[in-house]
TrEMBL record:
Protein name (database record): Immunoglobulin V-set domain-containing protein
Xref: InterPro entries: CD300_family_receptors (IPR050671), Ig-like_dom_sf (IPR036179), Ig-like_fold (IPR013783), Ig_V-set (IPR013106)
UniProt-annotated location(s): Membrane
Domain Immunoglobulin V-set residues, every copy: 34-116
Length: 146
């Protein structure tokens, strides 16, 4: 009887641990891919489920393991580089990142602060260089050729 109780307790603990681990790394939408241009701005929009309208939302970089990784929150929605807006009716929060530099490329996380482990959605930001120069040359040269 004692061995059976030990097995059941282990089984329940494993199930709880497994569920929490999955919740930490998954989301309903998968990875959000965003492309921006160096020197310009980009918007990252993240959806969330009904019932989380009043919860704090944020954008972080790296592994979101510390407060230093958090770039912007809905409780402090404006900095020199980031702005965040929560459309509670549409259940989408949008973060604007301005003055993009090559170091801004990479992995971000949209987060919703909840009791326990926060809800995350992965964001991959890709940056393209030289868009404005190429666009200007094409515009300039097409005028000259005509």
């Amino acid at each position: 009887v004692h061995l059976s109780l030990l097995y059941e307790t282990y089984h329940v603990d494993f199930y709880i641990l497994f569920t929490v681990a999955l919740r930490c790394v998954t989301s309903a939408v998968g990875v959000i891919h965003v492309t921006g241009y160096v020197g310009s701005a980009v918007k990252v929009s993240c959806s969330y489920d009904q019932g989380y309208e009043s919860y704090e939302k944020y954008l972080c970089k790296n592994d979101c393991g510390s407060n230093d990784d958090v770039l912007i929150t809905t409780s402090n929605p404006v900095t020199s580089k980031y702005r965040i807006h929560d459309d509670k009716t549409a259940r989408i929060f949008t973060t604007s990142i301005s003055d993009l530099r090559s170091v801004d490329a990479g992995k971000y996380w949209c987060g919703v602060t909840i009791f326990g482990i926060d809800i995350y959605t992965e964001v991959e930001l890709k940056l393209v260089q030289g868009f404005f120069k190429i666009h200007y040359i094409q515009f300039c040269c097409s005028k000259l050729i005509k």
